[in-house]
Design a protein that fits this description.
Radius of gyration: 29 Å
Oligomer: single chain
Largest sheet: 6 strands, mixed
Bound molecules: adenosine-5'-triphosphate
Organism: Actinoallomurus oryzae
CATH architecture of the largest domain: Orthogonal Bundle
Structural class: alpha/beta
GO molecular function: ATP binding
Number of helices: 22
Pfam family, one: ABC_tran
CATH topology of the largest domain: ABC transporter involved in vitamin B12 uptake, BtuC
Keywords: ATP-binding, Cell membrane, Membrane, Nucleotide-binding, Transmembrane, Transmembrane helix, Transport
Protein name: Branched-chain amino acid ABC transporter ATP-binding protein/permease
Length: 602
């Protein structure tokens, strides 16, 4: 930790320690509540700000924690279901555990149902979380046995803890939550969270199960929020429908949006300031305060997407960074590792030039439009195969169908790669982990990740990054260093991908595909936007990959480049392979000439 950060943390600690002595019991209670709300805001920022999962019913998890404590200490005790469990404190502990476990399990089920369908999108989770939280309030209010009704459950404060005690307990809980959240979002796993938020499909094609990442983060956020809800109930001795109401859920969104998404500190401050202001104003103007909150949320989302405090938090970060520049990540050549596929040395288990992908009778269409019409093709290890064909021939579609087994309806794509056997319709991340890398035709990068961070994730190829370690060095194969240099990315290790030009993004895409240490690499137009000199250099890198046993599949329009670099050329036209052979044969083919000149092919 730098000296400035330590000094800032020490100053905050002193203020937090001294404040209760300058205020009365009332403000100690208000501040303790605000700290618990701040924990909730940090957890929502983790889920929504960093992993990009919009949870509109986040209050539900808070309410579950609160109600669980209320129930185990009142209703269930009364009917004899929870009696003296290690004394009175045990009952509270049971309530906390039940609340956290219930919220965790329910959140995992909700997230799995909403996110695991191939067609699911953010809209699903928005609607479901909103509907669930709303339904929960109705069910609770109409089920007296749950302790619902106007007043809810009350009078079960944890005995023996004063307002001052709660003040310090909640301050400590908040400090731990913020510290853990900051470590995780700055760790290598934090990169994966942002990658999934920025561009989930790209993360998938690097071997990551984006759905699982979102489910874990969503579930962790629910668990932390339930814990805060349980503490809230123990402190106030009250549990009612207000704790999982839509109003509270909206307030949570406001705290994060106003504080600045993906900053952790911003939502924390937002929650403390706004909940204190709300507590004061709500007493005098209850109706107006709700309207003010709603208007603020709309205004921030529309006009200041970074949040009111976001720019201030970032400015403070930059000022600190100015005095102590953040440690950037260094891209360096990694030594070959015997247990990993190494593109810069003969692959230990390379099968000496046999087919690694065998495609037979592959058919695919969009509605009534048949795009692939019985494609048969072998992709061979240690061969540079070019797939050419006029626009609309189905080249990109072929790549999509090879790399996403779920798209296949007819025909087979067999992966003859060492390691675990893939099923009939493997998901993109499974195919990527088996060693099939791809570069998209239109550069597909992670906007907020720097060049080095993107390469770090590519290098891990689906292996879960550490949630606490922050790698300072990104070790990649020497061929990746070559591509970084050729593409003009050297010296840009710490540049966010969003700030790269189109050409540089192309280069980064190729570098990411190679960094994933593939056994098969499919590159859709890797030379688009490059100069003749850069094409020549990229050609050399591709030949090198071929020479060390990787199957290289190149989709290209530049026929001179194709003839120069390829070992074999496949010509696709109208979704069919009309020529498959050495480049010279293909160049002289009448069928190919007809296809390119637009004449019908028999
Ligand atoms: N999502 C989609 N929905 C409907 N039709 C599509 C879709 N994507 C591609 N197509 C159609 O499928 C056909 C093949 O497209 P594809 O992009 O695979 O061709 P291509 O050979 O890669 O072309 P290009 O060289 O221009 O990239 C085209 O007629 C295209 O319009």
């Amino acid at each position: 930790m730098s000296r400035s950060v330590t000094a800032a943390a020490a100053a905050i600690a002193v203020v937090v320690l001294v404040t209760p002595f300058l205020s009365g019991t009332y403000y100690q209670q208000l501040l303790a509540q605000a700290f618990l709300y701040a924990i909730v805001a940090v957890s929502l920022d983790f889920v929504w700000g960093y992993a990009g999962v919009p949870d509109l019913g986040h209050a539900l998890w808070f309410g579950i924690g609160a109600l669980s404590v209320g129930h185990t200490t009142t209703v269930l005790s009364d009917v004899g279901l929870v009696t003296e469990v290690h004394g009175s404190a045990g009952r509270y502990l049971v309530g906390v555990v039940i609340g956290v476990v219930t919220a965790t399990v329910l959140a995992a089920i909700v997230a799995r149902l909403c996110l695991s369908s191939r067609r699911s999108n953010d809209f699903y989770i928005v609607v479901v979380t909103l509907a669930l939280a709303t339904a929960a309030v109705t069910v609770y209010d109409q089920t007296p046995g749950l302790g619902g009704g106007e007043n809810g459950l009350f009078g079960f404060n944890l005995p023996g803890v004063s307002s001052l005690g709660w003040y310090y307990i909640t301050a400590a809980m908040l400090a731990v939550t913020v510290a853990v959240a900051l470590v995780v979002v700055r760790s290598d796993f934090g990169l994966l969270m942002r990658a999934v938020r920025d561009n989930a499909p790209r993360a998938r094609y690097l071997g990551y199960n984006d759905v699982n990442v979102k489910i874990w983060v969503f579930t962790a956020g629910a668990a932390v929020t339930a814990l805060a809800g349980a503490a809230f109930a123990m402190m106030t001795g009250v549990a009612n429908d207000g704790q999982f109401s839509f109003t509270l859920a909206t307030s949570m969104l406001v705290w994060v949006a106003v504080g600045g998404r993906a900053t952790i500190v911003g939502p924390m401050i937002g929650a403390i300031v706004m909940s204190l202001a709300g507590a004061k104003l709500n007493e005098q103007f209850p109706a107006q305060w709700t309207i003010i909150e709603g208007a603020l949320l709309i205004a921030v989302v529309v006009f200041i997407p970074g949040g009111l405090l976001g720019p201030l938090v970032r400015l403070a970060g930059r000022l600190l960074a100015h005095r102590h520049p953040p440690r950037g990540r260094v891209i360096a050549a990694a030594p070959a590792e015997p247990d990993r596929p190494a593109p810069d040395g003969p692959a230990p288990d390379a099968d000496g030039g046999g087919p690694v992908i065998r495609i037979r009778d592959l058919v695919f269409g969009y509605g009534s439009l048949r795009v692939l019409d019985g494609v048969a093709l072998d992709v061979v290890a240690g061969e540079l195969l070019c797939v050419v064909g006029p626009n609309g021939a189905g080249k990109s579609t072929l790549t999509n169908v090879i790399t996403d087994g779920r798209l296949r309806s007819r025909g087979t794509v067999e992966f003859l790669l060492p390691g675990r056997r893939l099923g009939d319709r493997p998901a993109p991340h499974e195919i990527a982990r088996a060693g099939v890398g791809r570069k998209f035709q239109i550069p597909s990068v992670f906007a907020s990740l720097t060049v080095a961070e993107a390469l770090l994730l590519a290098d891990r190829r689906g292996a879960l990054p550490s949630p606490w370690r922050r790698s300072a060095t990104v070790g990649v194969a020497p061929s990746v260093i070559d591509i970084v240099r050729i593409a003009g990315l050297a010296g840009r290790a710490d540049t966010p991908s969003a700030d790269l030009s189109h050409g540089l993004r192309q280069g980064l895409e190729v570098a990411m595909a190679v960094a994933a240490r593939p056994r098969v690499i499919i590159l859709d137009e890797p030379t688009a936007g490059l100069t003749a000199h850069e094409r020549h250099d990229i050609g050399q890198v591709l030949e090198h990959l071929r020479d060390i046993g990787i199957a290289v599949v190149l989709i290209e329009h530049d026929l001179d480049f194709v003839i120069r670099v390829s070992d074999r050329v496949v010509v696709l036209h109208g979704g069919r392979v009309i020529e498959d052979g050495p480049p010279e044969t293909v160049r002289g083919s009448d069928a190919v000439r007809s296809a390119y000149l637009g004449t019908a092919v028999r």
